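Internal ticket #5521
Category: modeling
Description: The requester needs a full-assembly model to guide mutagenesis choices. All entity lines are attached below as received. Residue total reported by intake: 567.
Assigned to: D.W.
Attached entities:
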Amino acid sequence: MPIHEKELIRPENLRTHEQLTVDGVDVSGHWSTFIQSRVVTDYNEAMQDEIAALPGGEFIHRCWQCGSCTNACTVNAVNPDFNPRFWIYLVRVGMEAELLRDKDIVWQCVSCNKCTTICPRDVNPEGVMKALSHWLELKGHTPKSPSMVFDEVFADQVIRRGKIEDGRTIRRFFERTGQALQQDWLIEMAKRLVRHLPVGLLARLGWSAVIAPRTRDWSRARAAIEEYVHDQHAAQRQALGLDAAGGASTTREGA
Amino acid sequence: MSETKSDKYARVAYYPGCALEGTGHPYNRSTKAVGKALGLDLVEVDNWNCCGAMEVKNIDPKVQTYLSSRVMSIAANQMRMDVVMAPCNGCYHNLKKAEHDLAHDPASAEVVARLSAKAGHAAYQPGQVESIHALDWLKGAIGEDGLRARVKGGLKGLRIANYYGCMYTRPRNIFPEKDAGPGSESTSKPHFMDDLLAAAGAVNVDFPLKTACCGGAHTLSDSDLSTKLVLNILNAAEAAGAEIIATECPTCHSGLEMHQIRAEKRFQRKTQVKIVYFTQLLGLALGLSARQVGLHENVSESRELLAAKGLG
Protein backbone atom coordinates (compact mmCIF):
# COMPACT_ATOMS: atom_id res chain seq x y z
CA MET A 1 0.00 0.00 0.00
CA PRO A 2 1.44 3.40 -0.87
CA ILE A 3 2.08 6.00 1.77
CA HIS A 4 -0.28 8.86 1.24
CA GLU A 5 1.97 11.85 0.99
CA LYS A 6 0.73 15.05 2.47
CA GLU A 7 0.93 18.18 0.39
CA LEU A 8 2.25 21.32 2.03
CA ILE A 9 1.68 23.25 -1.22
CA ARG A 10 -2.08 23.65 -0.92
CA PRO A 11 -4.25 26.10 -2.88
CA GLU A 12 -4.62 28.44 0.10
CA ASN A 13 -0.83 28.71 0.37
CA LEU A 14 -0.41 29.82 -3.25
CA ARG A 15 -0.21 33.50 -4.13
CA THR A 16 -1.04 34.76 -7.60
CA HIS A 17 -1.24 38.48 -8.33
CA GLU A 18 -3.05 40.04 -11.23
CA GLN A 19 -0.80 43.09 -11.15
CA LEU A 20 2.49 42.99 -9.26
CA THR A 21 5.93 44.36 -9.91
CA VAL A 22 8.84 43.45 -7.61
CA ASP A 23 12.13 45.32 -8.04
CA GLY A 24 11.11 46.38 -11.51
CA VAL A 25 10.23 42.82 -12.59
CA ASP A 26 6.64 42.13 -13.63
CA VAL A 27 5.45 39.05 -11.72
CA SER A 28 1.76 39.28 -12.60
CA GLY A 29 -0.38 36.29 -13.48
CA HIS A 30 -0.41 32.55 -13.20
CA TRP A 31 3.16 32.00 -14.47
CA SER A 32 4.52 33.88 -11.46
CA THR A 33 2.66 32.00 -8.74
CA PHE A 34 4.39 32.17 -5.35
CA ILE A 35 4.23 29.70 -2.45
CA GLN A 36 3.61 31.62 0.74
CA SER A 37 6.90 31.83 2.58
CA ARG A 38 7.49 30.39 6.03
CA VAL A 39 9.49 32.24 8.65
CA VAL A 40 11.33 31.01 11.70
CA THR A 41 8.66 32.25 14.08
CA ASP A 42 6.10 29.94 12.44
CA TYR A 43 7.83 26.97 14.05
CA ASN A 44 7.18 25.80 17.60
CA GLU A 45 10.58 24.62 18.72
CA ALA A 46 9.34 23.27 22.06
CA MET A 47 6.96 20.82 20.48
CA GLN A 48 9.14 17.72 20.28
CA ASP A 49 10.31 18.14 23.88
CA GLU A 50 6.73 18.56 25.07
CA ILE A 51 5.56 15.40 23.31
CA ALA A 52 8.59 13.56 24.70
CA ALA A 53 7.58 14.65 28.21
CA LEU A 54 4.28 12.77 27.93
CA PRO A 55 4.01 8.97 28.38
CA GLY A 56 4.45 7.19 25.06
CA GLY A 57 6.18 10.11 23.34
CA GLU A 58 9.65 9.50 24.83
CA PHE A 59 11.25 8.09 21.69
CA ILE A 60 9.85 10.39 19.00
CA HIS A 61 13.37 11.75 18.35
CA ARG A 62 14.45 8.37 16.95
CA CYS A 63 12.19 8.61 13.88
CA TRP A 64 13.92 8.62 10.50
CA GLN A 65 10.70 8.94 8.49
CA CYS A 66 10.69 5.56 6.78
CA GLY A 67 6.90 5.55 6.81
CA SER A 68 6.48 1.95 7.99
CA CYS A 69 4.02 3.10 10.66
CA THR A 70 1.63 4.74 8.21
CA ASN A 71 2.06 1.83 5.84
CA ALA A 72 0.99 -0.66 8.53
CA CYS A 73 -1.69 1.54 10.11
CA THR A 74 -5.20 0.13 10.64
CA VAL A 75 -6.86 3.54 10.76
CA ASN A 76 -4.94 4.88 7.74
CA ALA A 77 -6.51 2.10 5.66
CA VAL A 78 -9.93 3.50 6.54
CA ASN A 79 -9.03 7.19 6.56
CA PRO A 80 -5.94 8.27 4.53
CA ASP A 81 -5.76 11.54 6.49
CA PHE A 82 -4.70 9.52 9.54
CA ASN A 83 -0.95 9.62 8.97
CA PRO A 84 1.40 8.90 11.93
CA ARG A 85 4.60 9.39 9.91
CA PHE A 86 3.48 12.85 8.77
CA TRP A 87 2.45 13.91 12.28
CA ILE A 88 5.75 12.72 13.74
CA TYR A 89 7.50 14.81 11.08
CA LEU A 90 5.43 17.89 11.93
CA VAL A 91 6.16 17.53 15.64
CA ARG A 92 9.87 17.08 15.07
CA VAL A 93 10.07 20.11 12.79
CA GLY A 94 7.68 22.09 14.99
CA MET A 95 4.99 22.82 12.40
CA GLU A 96 2.20 23.23 14.92
CA ALA A 97 -0.29 24.96 12.62
CA GLU A 98 -0.05 22.11 10.11
CA LEU A 99 -0.59 19.53 12.84
CA LEU A 100 -3.64 21.37 14.14
CA ARG A 101 -5.35 20.81 10.78
CA ASP A 102 -5.64 17.13 11.80
CA LYS A 103 -6.28 17.69 15.50
CA ASP A 104 -9.74 16.13 15.52
CA ILE A 105 -8.67 12.71 14.25
CA VAL A 106 -5.42 12.02 16.13
CA TRP A 107 -7.31 10.34 18.99
CA GLN A 108 -8.75 7.72 16.62
CA CYS A 109 -5.66 5.48 16.94
CA VAL A 110 -7.02 2.02 17.89
CA SER A 111 -3.80 0.85 19.60
CA CYS A 112 -3.46 -2.24 17.38
CA ASN A 113 0.33 -1.86 17.69
CA LYS A 114 1.05 -2.73 14.07
CA CYS A 115 3.21 0.41 13.84
CA THR A 116 5.09 -0.35 17.05
CA THR A 117 5.80 -3.88 15.86
CA ILE A 118 7.06 -2.78 12.44
CA CYS A 119 9.01 0.35 13.45
CA PRO A 120 12.75 -0.21 12.78
CA ARG A 121 13.75 2.53 15.20
CA ASP A 122 11.60 1.64 18.25
CA VAL A 123 9.84 4.99 18.13
CA ASN A 124 6.68 3.40 19.61
CA PRO A 125 4.37 5.33 17.24
CA GLU A 126 1.30 4.01 19.07
CA GLY A 127 2.57 5.73 22.22
CA VAL A 128 3.33 8.89 20.23
CA MET A 129 -0.28 8.98 18.99
CA LYS A 130 -1.50 8.77 22.61
CA ALA A 131 0.98 11.44 23.73
CA LEU A 132 -0.06 13.64 20.83
CA SER A 133 -3.79 13.43 21.51
CA HIS A 134 -3.09 14.01 25.21
CA TRP A 135 -0.99 17.07 24.29
CA LEU A 136 -3.79 18.46 22.10
CA GLU A 137 -6.21 18.15 25.02
CA LEU A 138 -3.89 19.56 27.67
CA LYS A 139 -3.06 22.54 25.47
CA GLY A 140 -6.76 23.18 24.92
CA HIS A 141 -6.66 22.60 21.15
CA THR A 142 -9.32 19.90 21.38
CA PRO A 143 -11.95 18.93 23.92
CA LYS A 144 -11.49 15.58 25.65
CA SER A 145 -12.03 12.89 23.03
CA PRO A 146 -14.65 10.18 23.63
CA SER A 147 -11.73 7.76 23.89
CA MET A 148 -10.10 9.77 26.67
CA VAL A 149 -13.42 10.00 28.52
CA PHE A 150 -13.73 6.22 28.28
CA ASP A 151 -10.16 5.75 29.53
CA GLU A 152 -10.88 8.04 32.49
CA VAL A 153 -14.14 6.33 33.42
CA PHE A 154 -12.43 2.95 33.17
CA ALA A 155 -9.25 3.91 35.03
CA ASP A 156 -11.30 5.65 37.73
CA GLN A 157 -13.12 2.39 38.50
CA VAL A 158 -9.94 0.32 38.49
CA ILE A 159 -8.12 2.73 40.78
CA ARG A 160 -11.08 2.96 43.17
CA ARG A 161 -12.05 -0.69 43.38
CA GLY A 162 -9.30 -2.75 41.77
CA LYS A 163 -11.82 -4.27 39.37
CA ILE A 164 -14.21 -3.36 36.57
CA GLU A 165 -17.86 -4.14 36.05
CA ASP A 166 -18.42 -3.60 32.34
CA GLY A 167 -22.11 -2.60 32.52
CA ARG A 168 -21.25 0.21 34.91
CA THR A 169 -18.38 1.42 32.70
CA ILE A 170 -20.66 1.53 29.66
CA ARG A 171 -23.42 3.39 31.51
CA ARG A 172 -21.06 6.01 32.90
CA PHE A 173 -19.37 6.50 29.53
CA PHE A 174 -22.71 7.16 27.82
CA GLU A 175 -23.64 9.54 30.65
CA ARG A 176 -20.43 11.56 30.37
CA THR A 177 -20.50 11.78 26.58
CA GLY A 178 -24.16 12.76 26.63
CA GLN A 179 -25.32 9.84 24.48
CA ALA A 180 -28.56 7.99 25.01
CA LEU A 181 -28.11 4.47 26.33
CA GLN A 182 -31.06 3.44 24.14
CA GLN A 183 -29.10 2.95 20.91
CA ASP A 184 -31.01 0.72 18.47
CA TRP A 185 -28.14 -1.72 18.14
CA LEU A 186 -27.54 -1.93 21.91
CA ILE A 187 -31.23 -2.64 22.43
CA GLU A 188 -31.14 -5.34 19.77
CA MET A 189 -28.12 -6.86 21.46
CA ALA A 190 -29.77 -6.81 24.88
CA LYS A 191 -32.88 -8.43 23.37
CA ARG A 192 -30.86 -11.27 21.89
CA LEU A 193 -29.02 -11.76 25.18
CA VAL A 194 -32.23 -11.90 27.19
CA ARG A 195 -33.72 -14.39 24.76
CA HIS A 196 -30.80 -16.78 25.36
CA LEU A 197 -30.00 -16.30 28.97
CA PRO A 198 -31.33 -18.32 31.85
CA VAL A 199 -32.79 -16.41 34.78
CA GLY A 200 -29.90 -17.30 37.06
CA LEU A 201 -27.27 -15.63 34.94
CA LEU A 202 -29.34 -12.50 34.43
CA ALA A 203 -29.75 -12.25 38.19
CA ARG A 204 -25.99 -12.65 38.63
CA LEU A 205 -25.27 -9.90 36.09
CA GLY A 206 -27.85 -7.65 37.74
CA TRP A 207 -26.37 -8.35 41.15
CA SER A 208 -22.84 -7.45 40.05
CA ALA A 209 -24.22 -4.18 38.69
CA VAL A 210 -25.60 -3.33 42.14
CA ILE A 211 -22.72 -4.64 44.22
CA ALA A 212 -19.71 -3.61 42.14
CA PRO A 213 -16.93 -6.20 42.18
CA ARG A 214 -13.87 -5.10 44.09
CA THR A 215 -10.48 -6.33 45.19
CA ARG A 216 -10.24 -6.87 48.96
CA ASP A 217 -7.91 -4.67 51.03
CA TRP A 218 -7.40 -2.37 48.05
CA SER A 219 -7.35 0.94 49.92
CA ARG A 220 -3.56 1.17 50.34
CA ALA A 221 -2.93 0.34 46.70
CA ARG A 222 -5.56 2.90 45.72
CA ALA A 223 -3.95 5.63 47.83
CA ALA A 224 -0.49 4.84 46.44
CA ILE A 225 -1.72 4.91 42.82
CA GLU A 226 -3.72 8.11 43.28
CA GLU A 227 -0.73 9.87 44.81
CA TYR A 228 1.54 8.68 42.00
CA VAL A 229 -0.88 9.66 39.22
CA HIS A 230 -1.39 13.07 40.79
CA ASP A 231 2.37 13.73 40.89
CA GLN A 232 2.87 12.48 37.34
CA HIS A 233 0.13 14.68 35.93
CA ALA A 234 1.45 17.73 37.78
CA ALA A 235 4.94 17.08 36.35
CA GLN A 236 3.52 16.69 32.84
CA ARG A 237 1.59 19.95 33.08
CA GLN A 238 4.75 21.69 34.23
CA ALA A 239 6.71 20.27 31.28
CA LEU A 240 4.07 21.72 28.97
CA GLY A 241 4.26 25.11 30.66
CA LEU A 242 0.79 24.82 32.19
CA ASP A 243 -0.14 25.56 35.78
CA ALA A 244 -0.10 22.51 38.04
CA ALA A 245 -3.79 22.67 38.97
CA GLY A 246 -6.53 21.12 36.87
CA GLY A 247 -5.28 18.50 34.50
CA ALA A 248 -6.55 15.16 33.43
CA SER A 249 -7.28 13.83 36.88
CA THR A 250 -8.83 10.38 37.10
CA THR A 251 -9.85 10.75 40.66
CA ARG A 252 -12.28 13.62 40.67
CA GLU A 253 -15.33 11.64 39.72
CA GLY A 254 -17.96 10.59 42.20
CA ALA A 255 -18.23 6.91 43.12
CA MET B 1 10.52 -30.02 26.13
CA SER B 2 6.90 -31.04 25.58
CA GLU B 3 7.09 -33.44 28.55
CA THR B 4 8.21 -30.71 30.88
CA LYS B 5 5.51 -28.38 29.56
CA SER B 6 2.78 -30.95 29.97
CA ASP B 7 3.81 -31.34 33.62
CA LYS B 8 4.37 -27.65 34.19
CA TYR B 9 1.02 -26.60 32.70
CA ALA B 10 -1.03 -29.35 34.37
CA ARG B 11 -1.56 -27.07 37.36
CA VAL B 12 -1.50 -23.31 36.78
CA ALA B 13 -2.65 -20.11 38.46
CA TYR B 14 -5.77 -18.96 36.64
CA TYR B 15 -6.27 -15.23 36.04
CA PRO B 16 -9.76 -14.82 34.52
CA GLY B 17 -9.83 -11.01 34.60
CA CYS B 18 -12.81 -8.66 34.71
CA ALA B 19 -14.21 -9.34 31.23
CA LEU B 20 -14.57 -13.04 31.94
CA GLU B 21 -16.77 -12.22 34.92
CA GLY B 22 -18.99 -10.00 32.76
CA THR B 23 -19.52 -10.02 29.01
CA GLY B 24 -16.92 -12.76 28.49
CA HIS B 25 -18.53 -15.20 30.93
CA PRO B 26 -18.99 -17.97 28.34
CA TYR B 27 -15.21 -17.92 27.79
CA ASN B 28 -14.66 -18.35 31.53
CA ARG B 29 -17.19 -21.15 31.72
CA SER B 30 -15.84 -23.05 28.71
CA THR B 31 -12.18 -22.63 29.75
CA LYS B 32 -12.94 -24.15 33.15
CA ALA B 33 -15.06 -26.91 31.58
CA VAL B 34 -12.32 -27.83 29.09
CA GLY B 35 -9.70 -27.82 31.87
CA LYS B 36 -11.87 -30.14 33.93
CA ALA B 37 -12.57 -32.47 31.01
CA LEU B 38 -8.84 -32.74 30.33
CA GLY B 39 -7.88 -33.22 33.97
CA LEU B 40 -6.01 -29.91 34.22
CA ASP B 41 -5.99 -27.98 37.48
CA LEU B 42 -6.87 -24.25 37.44
CA VAL B 43 -6.21 -22.43 40.73
CA GLU B 44 -7.70 -18.94 40.58
CA VAL B 45 -5.32 -16.13 41.55
CA ASP B 46 -6.36 -15.06 45.04
CA ASN B 47 -7.97 -11.62 45.30
CA TRP B 48 -6.78 -10.51 41.86
CA ASN B 49 -7.23 -7.02 40.41
CA CYS B 50 -7.89 -5.64 36.93
CA CYS B 51 -4.86 -5.54 34.58
CA GLY B 52 -5.84 -2.06 33.34
CA ALA B 53 -6.93 -3.39 29.93
CA MET B 54 -6.25 -0.90 27.12
CA GLU B 55 -7.35 2.11 29.15
CA VAL B 56 -5.25 2.65 32.28
CA LYS B 57 -2.02 2.94 30.24
CA ASN B 58 -3.46 6.08 28.68
CA ILE B 59 -3.77 7.59 32.15
CA ASP B 60 -0.32 6.31 33.13
CA PRO B 61 1.57 3.34 31.63
CA LYS B 62 3.50 2.56 34.82
CA VAL B 63 0.29 2.22 36.83
CA GLN B 64 -0.74 -0.42 34.31
CA THR B 65 2.61 -2.17 34.86
CA TYR B 66 1.97 -2.10 38.60
CA LEU B 67 -1.53 -3.59 38.22
CA SER B 68 -0.20 -6.62 36.31
CA SER B 69 2.80 -6.97 38.62
CA ARG B 70 0.50 -7.27 41.64
CA VAL B 71 -1.31 -10.22 40.05
CA MET B 72 1.97 -11.96 39.26
CA SER B 73 3.32 -11.15 42.74
CA ILE B 74 0.33 -12.87 44.39
CA ALA B 75 0.73 -15.92 42.16
CA ALA B 76 4.47 -16.13 42.87
CA ASN B 77 4.85 -15.02 46.46
CA GLN B 78 1.56 -15.99 48.10
CA MET B 79 0.44 -18.97 46.03
CA ARG B 80 3.92 -20.28 45.12
CA MET B 81 2.84 -20.93 41.54
CA ASP B 82 5.22 -21.04 38.56
CA VAL B 83 2.74 -20.33 35.77
CA VAL B 84 -0.06 -17.76 35.41
CA MET B 85 -2.59 -18.50 32.67
CA ALA B 86 -4.83 -15.74 31.30
CA PRO B 87 -7.42 -16.55 28.60
CA CYS B 88 -8.10 -12.86 27.90
CA ASN B 89 -5.78 -11.29 25.31
CA GLY B 90 -5.80 -7.99 27.21
CA CYS B 91 -4.76 -9.56 30.52
CA TYR B 92 -2.23 -11.82 28.79
CA HIS B 93 -0.74 -8.89 26.85
CA ASN B 94 -0.43 -6.76 29.97
CA LEU B 95 1.24 -9.52 32.01
CA LYS B 96 3.78 -9.99 29.21
CA LYS B 97 4.28 -6.23 28.87
CA ALA B 98 4.85 -5.85 32.61
CA GLU B 99 7.30 -8.75 32.60
CA HIS B 100 9.20 -7.12 29.72
CA ASP B 101 9.22 -3.62 31.21
CA LEU B 102 10.29 -4.79 34.67
CA ALA B 103 13.22 -6.68 33.13
CA HIS B 104 14.30 -3.89 30.76
CA ASP B 105 13.19 -0.55 32.16
CA PRO B 106 14.66 0.46 35.55
CA ALA B 107 12.16 3.36 35.87
CA SER B 108 9.21 0.93 35.67
CA ALA B 109 10.84 -1.37 38.21
CA GLU B 110 11.37 1.56 40.57
CA VAL B 111 7.73 2.67 40.37
CA VAL B 112 6.46 -0.90 40.87
CA ALA B 113 8.75 -1.35 43.90
CA ARG B 114 7.51 1.93 45.39
CA LEU B 115 3.79 1.27 44.78
CA SER B 116 4.08 -2.36 45.99
CA ALA B 117 5.74 -1.24 49.22
CA LYS B 118 3.03 1.36 49.85
CA ALA B 119 0.30 -1.17 49.02
CA GLY B 120 1.89 -3.61 51.46
CA HIS B 121 2.91 -6.58 49.33
CA ALA B 122 6.11 -8.01 47.88
CA ALA B 123 7.16 -6.39 44.62
CA TYR B 124 7.13 -8.78 41.69
CA GLN B 125 10.56 -9.63 40.33
CA PRO B 126 10.80 -10.49 36.63
CA GLY B 127 11.20 -14.20 36.02
CA GLN B 128 9.25 -15.31 39.09
CA VAL B 129 6.37 -16.68 37.02
CA GLU B 130 5.78 -17.59 33.39
CA SER B 131 2.71 -15.86 31.96
CA ILE B 132 0.88 -17.79 29.27
CA HIS B 133 -2.30 -17.59 27.20
CA ALA B 134 -5.03 -20.26 27.25
CA LEU B 135 -3.72 -21.32 23.82
CA ASP B 136 -0.20 -21.90 25.21
CA TRP B 137 -1.75 -23.76 28.12
CA LEU B 138 -3.74 -26.26 26.06
CA LYS B 139 -1.05 -26.61 23.42
CA GLY B 140 1.60 -27.26 26.10
CA ALA B 141 -0.38 -29.34 28.58
CA ILE B 142 -2.27 -31.56 26.11
CA GLY B 143 -1.01 -30.81 22.61
CA GLU B 144 -2.52 -31.93 19.33
CA ASP B 145 -1.80 -35.63 19.86
CA GLY B 146 -3.27 -35.61 23.36
CA LEU B 147 -6.32 -33.80 22.06
CA ARG B 148 -6.80 -36.21 19.15
CA ALA B 149 -6.76 -39.11 21.60
CA ARG B 150 -9.44 -37.56 23.78
CA VAL B 151 -11.77 -36.04 21.24
CA LYS B 152 -15.20 -37.68 21.18
CA GLY B 153 -16.82 -37.28 17.81
CA GLY B 154 -14.81 -34.23 16.92
CA LEU B 155 -15.84 -31.07 15.11
CA LYS B 156 -16.89 -32.98 11.98
CA GLY B 157 -15.26 -30.79 9.40
CA LEU B 158 -16.76 -27.56 10.72
CA ARG B 159 -15.24 -24.75 8.64
CA ILE B 160 -13.54 -22.27 10.95
CA ALA B 161 -11.77 -18.92 10.54
CA ASN B 162 -9.32 -18.49 13.41
CA TYR B 163 -9.20 -14.91 14.65
CA TYR B 164 -6.38 -13.94 17.05
CA GLY B 165 -6.65 -10.14 17.18
CA CYS B 166 -3.93 -7.63 18.09
CA MET B 167 -2.91 -8.19 21.66
CA TYR B 168 -1.83 -11.83 21.29
CA THR B 169 1.11 -11.04 19.00
CA ARG B 170 1.84 -7.31 19.08
CA PRO B 171 4.17 -5.63 19.78
CA ARG B 172 6.51 -8.50 19.04
CA ASN B 173 9.23 -7.55 21.54
CA ILE B 174 7.14 -8.42 24.60
CA PHE B 175 6.76 -12.03 23.41
CA PRO B 176 10.37 -13.33 23.38
CA GLU B 177 9.19 -16.97 23.25
CA LYS B 178 7.38 -16.40 19.95
CA ASP B 179 9.07 -16.56 16.52
CA ALA B 180 11.63 -18.84 18.19
CA GLY B 181 11.85 -21.60 15.61
CA PRO B 182 9.92 -24.83 15.02
CA GLY B 183 7.07 -25.43 17.41
CA SER B 184 6.90 -21.86 18.64
CA GLU B 185 4.07 -19.45 17.94
CA SER B 186 4.40 -17.00 15.04
CA THR B 187 3.61 -13.32 15.51
CA SER B 188 2.86 -12.71 11.83
CA LYS B 189 0.91 -15.92 11.19
CA PRO B 190 -0.18 -17.34 14.53
CA HIS B 191 -1.28 -20.99 14.36
CA PHE B 192 -1.81 -22.36 17.89
CA MET B 193 -5.61 -22.07 17.64
CA ASP B 194 -5.54 -23.53 14.11
CA ASP B 195 -3.46 -26.46 15.40
CA LEU B 196 -5.78 -27.23 18.32
CA LEU B 197 -9.02 -26.93 16.37
CA ALA B 198 -7.63 -29.01 13.48
CA ALA B 199 -6.69 -31.71 15.99
CA ALA B 200 -10.28 -31.53 17.25
CA GLY B 201 -11.58 -32.23 13.75
CA ALA B 202 -12.26 -28.78 12.29
CA VAL B 203 -11.27 -27.55 8.84
CA ASN B 204 -9.39 -24.25 9.09
CA VAL B 205 -10.18 -21.98 6.17
CA ASP B 206 -7.46 -19.78 4.68
CA PHE B 207 -8.24 -16.62 6.61
CA PRO B 208 -6.07 -13.58 5.85
CA LEU B 209 -7.25 -11.39 8.74
CA LYS B 210 -6.09 -13.53 11.68
CA THR B 211 -4.34 -10.61 13.34
CA ALA B 212 -6.37 -7.71 11.94
CA CYS B 213 -7.71 -5.18 14.43
CA CYS B 214 -11.41 -5.24 15.43
CA GLY B 215 -11.24 -1.68 16.78
CA GLY B 216 -11.91 -3.02 20.26
CA ALA B 217 -10.21 -0.07 21.96
CA HIS B 218 -12.83 2.26 20.46
CA THR B 219 -15.78 -0.09 20.33
CA LEU B 220 -17.97 2.53 22.02
CA SER B 221 -16.01 5.76 21.59
CA ASP B 222 -15.65 5.49 17.79
CA SER B 223 -18.35 2.97 16.91
CA ASP B 224 -18.50 3.63 13.17
CA LEU B 225 -14.79 2.87 12.75
CA SER B 226 -15.14 -0.30 14.83
CA THR B 227 -18.13 -1.41 12.76
CA LYS B 228 -16.13 -0.95 9.55
CA LEU B 229 -13.16 -2.92 10.90
CA VAL B 230 -15.41 -5.70 12.20
CA LEU B 231 -17.28 -5.86 8.90
CA ASN B 232 -13.95 -6.42 7.11
CA ILE B 233 -13.28 -9.37 9.37
CA LEU B 234 -16.77 -10.87 9.05
CA ASN B 235 -16.82 -10.45 5.27
CA ALA B 236 -13.33 -11.92 4.85
CA ALA B 237 -14.30 -14.92 6.98
CA GLU B 238 -17.43 -15.53 4.91
CA ALA B 239 -15.52 -15.07 1.65
CA ALA B 240 -13.05 -17.69 2.88
CA GLY B 241 -15.96 -20.06 3.38
CA ALA B 242 -16.08 -20.08 7.18
CA GLU B 243 -19.21 -21.06 9.09
CA ILE B 244 -17.71 -19.96 12.38
CA ILE B 245 -15.12 -17.44 13.56
CA ALA B 246 -13.22 -18.89 16.51
CA THR B 247 -12.09 -16.26 19.03
CA GLU B 248 -9.62 -16.24 21.90
CA CYS B 249 -10.21 -12.77 23.35
CA PRO B 250 -13.35 -11.47 25.14
CA THR B 251 -12.92 -7.94 23.74
CA CYS B 252 -12.62 -9.19 20.16
CA HIS B 253 -15.46 -11.64 20.72
CA SER B 254 -17.96 -9.13 22.08
CA GLY B 255 -16.73 -6.55 19.56
CA LEU B 256 -17.50 -8.92 16.69
CA GLU B 257 -20.90 -9.82 18.17
CA MET B 258 -21.82 -6.22 18.93
CA HIS B 259 -20.74 -4.77 15.59
CA GLN B 260 -22.23 -7.63 13.59
CA ILE B 261 -25.57 -6.39 14.94
CA ARG B 262 -24.62 -2.74 14.55
CA ALA B 263 -23.59 -3.27 10.91
CA GLU B 264 -27.00 -4.82 10.33
CA LYS B 265 -28.87 -1.98 12.06
CA ARG B 266 -26.84 1.02 10.87
CA PHE B 267 -25.37 -0.04 7.51
CA GLN B 268 -27.86 -2.74 6.43
CA ARG B 269 -24.98 -5.18 6.04
CA LYS B 270 -26.04 -8.60 7.25
CA THR B 271 -23.51 -11.38 7.82
CA GLN B 272 -24.28 -14.99 8.77
CA VAL B 273 -20.98 -16.22 10.20
CA LYS B 274 -21.24 -17.27 13.89
CA ILE B 275 -18.82 -16.14 16.58
CA VAL B 276 -17.71 -18.78 19.09
CA TYR B 277 -14.85 -18.98 21.62
CA PHE B 278 -12.26 -21.63 20.70
CA THR B 279 -12.65 -23.18 24.15
CA GLN B 280 -16.37 -23.65 23.48
CA LEU B 281 -15.53 -25.52 20.26
CA LEU B 282 -12.90 -27.66 21.99
CA GLY B 283 -15.42 -28.44 24.75
CA LEU B 284 -17.98 -29.61 22.20
CA ALA B 285 -15.33 -31.75 20.51
CA LEU B 286 -14.58 -33.32 23.88
CA GLY B 287 -18.24 -34.29 24.22
CA LEU B 288 -19.45 -31.49 26.51
CA SER B 289 -22.97 -30.13 26.06
CA ALA B 290 -23.89 -26.76 24.56
CA ARG B 291 -24.90 -25.65 28.04
CA GLN B 292 -21.67 -26.82 29.67
CA VAL B 293 -19.62 -24.64 27.32
CA GLY B 294 -22.06 -21.73 27.64
CA LEU B 295 -23.27 -21.40 24.04
CA HIS B 296 -26.50 -19.93 25.46
CA GLU B 297 -24.49 -17.04 26.91
CA ASN B 298 -23.20 -15.88 23.53
CA VAL B 299 -25.06 -13.12 21.71
CA SER B 300 -24.22 -14.77 18.39
CA GLU B 301 -26.66 -17.71 18.14
CA SER B 302 -24.69 -20.74 16.97
CA ARG B 303 -26.64 -23.57 18.62
CA GLU B 304 -28.76 -24.45 15.62
CA LEU B 305 -25.78 -24.65 13.26
CA LEU B 306 -23.78 -26.76 15.71
CA ALA B 307 -26.70 -29.01 16.68
CA ALA B 308 -27.29 -29.75 12.97
CA LYS B 309 -23.77 -31.22 12.94
CA GLY B 310 -24.52 -33.23 16.04
CA LEU B 311 -22.47 -30.95 18.30
CA GLY B 312 -23.72 -29.94 21.76
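Resolution: model delivered.
Comment from assignee: Strands of chain B lie at 11-14, 41-44, 83-86, 130-133, 159-163, 203-204, 244-247, 274-277.
Ticket closed.
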